[in-house]
Design brief:
single chain, two-stranded antiparallel ribbon, alpha+beta, 15% strand, four-stranded mixed sheet
């Protein structure tokens, strides 16, 4: 099944820290990227879980810019287990008294200054074994949700691409009979101009000019390649899996053939057909950028 690179998932579970009940939560956000770009945002007390999270994520996700955020909170939304270190506060008060004796003009510290002082806020002590087990379960749940979300988005992308492939195939079949029509029109027009200029038309000269024109306007090869590339897109979409890079390459080839078709255009109708093809190819390329 085709998967998008865009998705979001979250999961949480209760966790004990310093005898209090906290909540361990994880968030996964992914957007499109050429390769797998994994960014882990963990607080210091959870930093030891980074290898576990990285292993679980890379086993399920192959492409996309993915941000994983793991954090610990209590019921009020404050980091669980966080408390003031009274020893550090007392030492800080003593230092303030000493500073004010030496520099009386110095202002007293504000609460925000105190809280920012290193060591004043004590970090929570957590059960590493319990935290590792819960974090692993949360990551697996969130990955299941993320993959499901990316699959749903991928189905929509595949449907949009299939619709545009059908439209391109229709334009290709419409373009096929336009070249013989253009050759017939050129033959008649050239003969008429020769008769106007010379009073008669040299059949041999007309045939030579038409043959040269036909060689320049021959687009059978381009139409054949377009049909082949469109069939390959259908095959890849049905096969599923990590198909984004392959589809992007084929979209580039489709664009190349559409440009060649436009450059060889022998009539206004064929030019319009080539332009429609280019617009559809560009729409496909935009959709493909989001496929894993």
């Amino acid at each position: 099944m085709i998967q998008s690179m865009t998705g979001y998932a979250a999961a949480s579970a209760a966790l004990s820290t310093d005898g209090a009940r906290g909540t361990l939560a994880i968030e996964l956000r992914s957007v499109n990227s050429r390769f797998l770009d994994l960014q882990l945002r963990l607080s210091d007390e959870l930093r030891a879980l980074e290898p576990l999270l990285r292993e679980l994520i890379t086993a399920r996700i192959t492409r996309g810019k993915l941000e994983c955020r793991l954090y610990l909170q209590d019921a009020t939304g404050v980091t669980a287990g966080t408390h003031l270190n009274t020893d550090a506060l007392e030492r800080l008060r003593e230092l303030e008294v000493q500073v004010l004796k030496i520099v009386p003009s110095a202002g007293a510290m504000r609460v925000a200054d105190v809280l920012r002082w290193p060591g004043v806020i004590a970090e929570p002590t957590i059960d590493e074994e319990q935290t590792r087990r819960v974090a692993g379960d949360l990551c697996r749940r969130a990955l299941d949700e993320l993959v499901a979300s990316r699959k749903r988005e991928g189905e929509k992308l595949a449907a949009a691409i299939t619709q545009r492939v059908a439209a391109m195939r229709k334009h290709v079949e419409e373009a096929a009979p336009l070249v013989p029509q253009a050759l017939a029109a050129y033959h008649a027009k050239l003969g008429e101009r020769l008769r106007e200029a010379l009073g008669s038309a040299d059949d041999e000269r007309v045939r030579t000019e038409v043959a040269l024109f036909a060689a320049k306007a021959d687009v059978d090869e381009e139409l054949t390649r377009l049909r082949t590339h469109l069939a390959e897109v259908d095959r890849i979409l049905k096969q599923g899996g990590a198909a984004g890079k392959r589809l992007d390459f084929i979209a580039q080839e489709l664009n190349r053939e559409a440009n060649t078709l436009a450059s060889k255009s022998a009539s206004a109708e064929l030019s319009d057909c080539a332009l429609e093809l280019k617009l559809l190819v560009e729409q496909v390329r935009e959709q493909v950028q989001n496929i894993e």
